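Need residues for this backbone.
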């Protein structure tokens, strides 16, 4: 593995005719990368916007900086130099925090001292101006994934007759296609091509690790909103994402940092300061914990039971298989989602989704202990709080007092020492209606009806 001293942000190009955008990076001007994103979806029915190259730069510049993290993590350098446009001190702080917080898990796993990295410099004195958009339409862009959260958001918008469009970034798959058929919506699909040598260098032994993709999607969504005239960008991040996994010195390591309220607030400030006053960026489900969202999903939207998945592991392994199972039933995400949904599902509904009873799989004992907070620390996955998982198991056993397995026997033994009002207090916490931070008033009204 070759050592590098500086990571360079070389520049980007936007083709106003095809909307193909290329982003260029390098290590020490020796190892170069080119990423491509195709912003024009020929299959989506819309009125094509007249291109404005200078306005486009306002949105492409922060996207350019965000995308660089995929290549920077191959060999993190102390210094990062932006050659194209000027960064003021507040921007440098934002981007250093962005890179360090996003790569917290990466630094933890690779045993690197994060305090030495992420120092941004800009060579150019050319400024990019914030733009004013006076004719944005009151319609919303909704990024969708495989899981229940974006389904809940789409149904809330659908049932309240809100003008919204699902948005897919990077890859299509059967799950998303099936969900679109159920809601009878057409999605905007934006294709991404990573630089090929990213994979070559990874195979050669350069660093690898987790990047919260939802943060990159946030910046992609901003440019999509500009191109397609959307006023609102609505994510489906929940309150549980605010809770970290562990600490690396003073840094809280949070696998879900790009879904957290901390990141949402900082990005909103950045948008208002440097990009646009008109575009609204927020998470519709921010005021709810995972378990409450699961209760909504299980109670009201059963039509999706055979058409959603929260399992990332299974799709990394079986990406090309058309008839793949939706759940591996062996990873922390499967165990957590099973636990919070199982509290609200009948036995038959559980089989329809997970095809077996995970509480009876002894091989999963350690994973249950981890999500309950009784072994190591919360797994590096998109899972909720430990007490939230305990409450879910408690609620299931309250409804199914005769259920028996080695795993629930351990749980019953552990909670036998808890105060009598322990779970009553947890119910008050996790099922309370919390303040919906940053959500525009018209959308807060929708949430008060569920």
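Answer:
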């Amino acid at each position: 593995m070759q050592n590098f001293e500086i990571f360079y942000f070389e520049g980007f190009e936007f083709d106003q005719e095809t909307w193909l955008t290329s982003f260029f990076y390098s290590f020490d001007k020796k190892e170069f990368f080119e990423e491509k994103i195709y912003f024009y979806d020929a299959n989506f029915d819309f009125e094509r916007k007249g291109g404005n190259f200078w306005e486009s730069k306002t949105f492409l510049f922060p996207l350019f900086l965000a995308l660089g993290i995929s290549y920077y993590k191959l060999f993190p350098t102390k210094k990062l130099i932006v050659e194209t446009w000027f960064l003021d001190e507040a921007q440098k702080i934002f981007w250093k925090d962005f890179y360090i917080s996003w790569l917290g898990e990466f630094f933890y796993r690779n045993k690197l001292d994060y305090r030495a990295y992420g120092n941004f410099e800009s060579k150019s004195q050319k400024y990019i101006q914030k733009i004013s958009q006076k004719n944005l339409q009151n319609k919303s862009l909704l990024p969708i994934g495989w899981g229940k959260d974006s389904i809940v958001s789409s149904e809330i918008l659908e049932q309240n007759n809100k003008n919204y469009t699902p948005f897919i970034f990077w890859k299509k798959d059967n799950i998303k296609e099936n969900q679109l058929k159920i809601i009878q919506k057409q999605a905007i699909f934006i294709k991404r091509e990573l630089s090929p040598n990213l994979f070559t260098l990874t195979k050669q032994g350069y660093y690898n690790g987790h990047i919260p993709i939802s943060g990159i999607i946030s910046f992609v969504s901003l440019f999509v909103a500009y191109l397609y005239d959307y006023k609102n960008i609505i994510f489906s991040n929940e309150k549980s994402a605010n809770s970290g996994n562990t600490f690396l010195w003073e840094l809280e390591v949070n696998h879900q940092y790009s879904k957290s309220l901390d990141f949402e607030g900082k990005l909103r400030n950045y948008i208002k300061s440097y990009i646009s006053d008109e575009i609204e960026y927020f998470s519709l489900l921010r005021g709810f914990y995972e378990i409450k969202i699961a209760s909504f999903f299980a109670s009201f939207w059963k039509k999706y039971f055979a058409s959603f998945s929260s399992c990332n592991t299974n799709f990394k392994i079986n990406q090309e298989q058309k008839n793949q199972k939706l759940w591996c039933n062996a990873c922390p995400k499967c165990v957590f989602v099973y636990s919070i949904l199982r509290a609200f599902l009948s036995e038959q509904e559980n089989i329809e989704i997970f095809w077996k009873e995970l509480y009876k799989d002894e091989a999963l004992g350690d994973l249950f202990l981890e999500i309950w907070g009784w072994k190591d620390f919360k797994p590096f996955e998109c899972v909720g709080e430990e007490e939230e998982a305990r409450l879910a198991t408690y609620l299931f056993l309250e409804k199914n007092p005769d259920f028996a397995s080695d795993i629930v026997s351990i749980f019953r033994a552990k909670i036998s020492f808890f105060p009598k009002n322990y779970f009553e207090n947890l119910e008050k916490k996790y099922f309370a209606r919390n303040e919906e931070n940053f959500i525009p008033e018209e959308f807060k009204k929708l949430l008060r009806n569920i």
